[in-house]
Amino acid sequence: MRKRTVFLIVCAAVFAAGIMLTFVGFAIGGIQGIDRVAEKHDWIKGSPGNVETDMKEYGEFESIEIDTSNGDVILVGENALSDALMLGEIPGELRGYISDNAKPEPGNVYMIYGENLDKPEVTKDNGVLKIKDENEKPGITFDFSTGDKTPAIIVVCGDNIKDIDVKTAYGDIEAIGVSAGEFNASSSDGDIDIVGSDLNKTVVKVDLGDVVFASYDEESAYTINAKTAIGDIEVNEKDISEAGGNYNFGSGSKTLEINTGDGDIELLFGHSAMREL
After folding, report:
1. H-helix or E-strand spanning residue 25
2. What's the CA gap between 29 and 26, in Å, rounded?
3. Taking a C-beta distance cutoff of 8 angstroms, is the pair 172, 192 a contact?
4. What whole-number distance in Å separates Cα of residue 44 and Cα of residue 67?
5. Which of 28, 42, 112, 126 is the most buried (most CB within 10 A)?
6. Is 139 helix (H, G, I), strand (E, B) or coil?
7. Burial class (CB in 10 A: 0-12, 13-18, 19+), 276
């Protein structure tokens, strides 16, 4: 309770400071004025400019390493991209771009970013696809930009991936219909959703954000260790929060480890997952 109270006090203080800076920003010239201030201070974000889209083909790869400071990451299995498009899981600007300009083949990497942001660097070396951006703004930031300002990276994955490692400082992570041996995902501030994916070992860590794991496999296929410091845990639509923020289950061949600081954990298996997906 004490942690939650401190967190709420910090949120209130940040919100109040944001309101104050909003009035100051408009007083000095609206959005353009805020942009001028943002050029001098790292802790204020102005307009990202026009939205840019990009797509390149990198062919098959065995491993994926993604490290982003600001932006969402979406990993989609080759056979799941059409469903992800239909369900609106792909950002609007990229949805039409993908549908009109390219076939959903493994190795396709799609990106959306503001023209005032650095384009993420993408390389492929010895079967490892590496994506990294350096758009980080250190410390607490106040964001006054307009429009779709969140960068996004989408990777279409094949079936022969050994391991995936995704890190975001500020941004959500999604894995939809992905097959891999090992999947590691971590975010300082963002939600993580893993849906309809076939993963032998899954390790998830979130400081501030919720986690959803939905698998067509039955729960008995997994060895599960889920823990949250501040949040609820729900398994197959049943709240088990009375367990004290911990849930350990089974001895299946697949491993699932989830740890959140401040965030809820939702686990869905078998028929429960099918109803949700």
Report:
1. helix 2-27
2. 5
3. yes
4. 23
5. 112
6. coil
7. middle
Nearest C-alpha neighbor of 229 from the set 204, 262, 186, 256? 262
Per-residue confidence at 150, pLDDT binned at 50, 70, 90? Answer: low
CA 5 and chain centroid, separation: 26
Identify the sign of the CA torsion 145, 84, 110, 97: negative
CA 244 to chain centre: 26
- Enter the DSSP assignment of 118: P
Per-residue pLDDT tens over the stretch 179-210: 999 999 999 999 999 999 999 999 999 999 99
SS (H, E, C) the chain: CHHHHHHHHHHHHHHHHHHHHHHHHHHCCHHHHHHHHHHHCCCEECCCCCEEEEEEECCCCCEEEEEECCCEEEEEECCCHHHHHHCCCCCHHHHHHHHHHCCCCCCEEEEEEECCCCCCEEEEECCEEEEECCCCCCCCCEECCCCCCCCEEEEEECCCEEEEEEEEEECCEEEECCEEEEEEEEEEECCEEEECCEEEEEEEEEEECCEEEEECCCHHHEEEEEEEEECCEEECCEECHHHCCEEEECCCCEEEEEEEEECCEEEEEHHHHHHHC
Contacts of residue 126, Cβ cutoff 8 Å, sequence gap at least 6: none
d(Cα 37, Cα 53) in Å, to the nearest integer? 27
First to last CA, the chain: 34
For the chain, the average pLDDT equals: 78
